[in-house]
Amino acid sequence: MRKGLIALAAAAAAVLAAVLIYDGVAEKEAQQTFFAMDTVCSLTLTGRDAPAAAEEIPAQVTALETGLFSRQAAGSEAAQLNRDGGGAVSAQLAQVLSATWEISEKSGGALDCTLGGVSDLWDFTGDPHVPSQAQLQAALAHTGYRKLHLSETAVAYDDPAAVLDLGAVGKGAALDAVREALQGRRLRAGIVSLGGSILLLGRRTFTVGIKDPAGNEGDCLATMRLSDCCISTSGSYERFFEENGERYHHILDPATGLPVRNGLVSVTIVAQSGLVSDALSTACFVRGVEDGAALAAAFGCEAVFVAENGDVTVTDGLRAKLTVTNPDYRIVN
Ligand code: ADP
Ligand code: MG
Q1: How far apart are CA 74 and CA 304, in angstroms?
Q2: What distance in Å separates the CA atoms of residue 130 and residue 256, rounded to the nearest whole number?
Q3: What DSSP letter does each residue of 293-305 carry, written as one string?
Q4: Is 286 in the pocket of ligand 1 (CB under 6 A)?
Q5: For the chain, which residues make up each domain, given as ranges?
Q6: 215 CA distance to ligand 1 middle (Å)
Q7: Which residue CA neighbors atom 8 of ligand 1 most closely?
Q8: Is the Cβ atom of 168 under 6 angstroms away from ligand 1?
């Protein structure tokens, strides 16, 4: 293992849902650490075009954030849609919205990208606090992904007070865009990590860790040997606060507007598409182990569910690639 990469993994581990351990061989390599999409991001590329490509990716991710996905960025398409209650969109955003809509539908509404009004009440990234039932009910009256009607060029809102929030899919969608931009570049391998979503490029096999929520920064509970895929983790320990001795985290049940309480601490999804891995990690967390595993299977994805009590459930296709490294956890299926 190479020293720089270990250092990178250690630096990033504080904020990543997954920790990277990279078995590199000596060759031209470029690294970047940057802040975008409200999280610490990092990348390592190897191959002839690595330095040039590594320079471009941070700006590309930031452009997607401020131009398309972030409803907090006043000039983004998402912000514009929310201001106008619908309107024209780029082909790129239309595609992301339609893929998200399909996952919302197939997950029985567990993924809902119109939860913006509810997330605003919780204000996880600002001054978090528990909203009143009356506030939640009022905000829930304006949620529901079926209120959005999509075409390839526009989005119509049934309810102009609905608030599009792409927090659950933006990082994954950005990974897909990064991969597309890197096509044709002379690269051997690479890792691009945007918070809890990671893209692995090339034929090289990487070791990716699932963070131990009870451990210190950088501690893993399990590792997976993976190549050429996207991996996303949604964890209840990623963003949370405590009020009156109760813990509240940022993965919300669209039916109630409350943080999901089903005994899970994290769900990790391995998929070909970043958007699918990101969206499903949230949706499968909401659905819980049984329904979540069926949902992952419906999209041809693998999944790891980690419960508060240390039980780990892993889908069949991933089992041989996963090693539980912390004795407090055990595979139960
Ligand atoms: P992270 O942002 O830590 O990667 P997720 O991908 O699970 O985590 O996305 C969580 C974010 O998505 C929340 O901060 C919120 O903005 C939004 N969100 C929370 N619950 C849902 C849900 N059930 N459906 C869609 N979006 C959600
Ligand atoms: Mg997600």
Answers
A1: 36
A2: 13
A3: HHHHHHTT-EEEE
A4: yes
A5: 1-333
A6: 23
A7: 234
A8: yes
Ligand closest to CA 78: 1
**Ligand 1 centroid, distance to 234 Cα (angstroms):** 8
Tens place of pLDDT per residue across the chain (333 aa) = 333 333 334 333 322 334 444 454 456 789 999 999 999 999 999 999 999 999 999 999 999 999 999 999 999 999 999 999 999 999 999 999 999 999 999 999 999 999 999 999 999 989 999 999 999 999 999 999 999 999 999 999 999 999 999 999 999 999 999 999 999 999 999 999 999 999 999 999 999 999 999 998 889 999 999 999 999 999 998 899 999 999 999 999 999 999 999 999 999 999 999 999 999 999 999 999 999 999 999 999 999 999 999 999 999 999 999 999 999 999 998
Structure-block tokens of residue 65 = 């954030």
Host H or E run for residue 286: helix 274-287
CATH topology for the 1-333 domain = T-fold (3.10.520)
Tell me, in angstroms, the distance from the centre of ligand 2 to residue 34's CA: 20
Complete edge-to-edge strand list for the sheet that includes strand 311-314: 29-36, 39-46, 189-194, 197-202, 229-235, 264-271, 302-307, 311-314, 330-331
Ligand 1 pocket test, pick from 169, 198, 250 with the greatest ligand atom count within 8 Å of Cβ, gives: 250
- For ligand 1, whether the C-beta of 172 sits within 6 Å is no
Decide: pTM greater than 0.90: yes
Q: How crowded is residue 165: how many other Cβ atoms within 10 Å of its Cβ?
A: 25
Q: Is 279 in the pocket of ligand 1 (CB under 6 A)?
A: no
Q: Which two tokens stand for residue 225?
A: 């040997």
Q: Which of 41, 197, 282, 295 for a ligand 1 pocket mutation test, highest count of atoms within 8 Å of Cβ?
A: 282
Q: Which ligand 1 atom minimizes the distance to the CA of 111?
A: 24
Q: How far apart are the C-alpha atoms of 293 and 332, rounded to whole Å?
A: 14
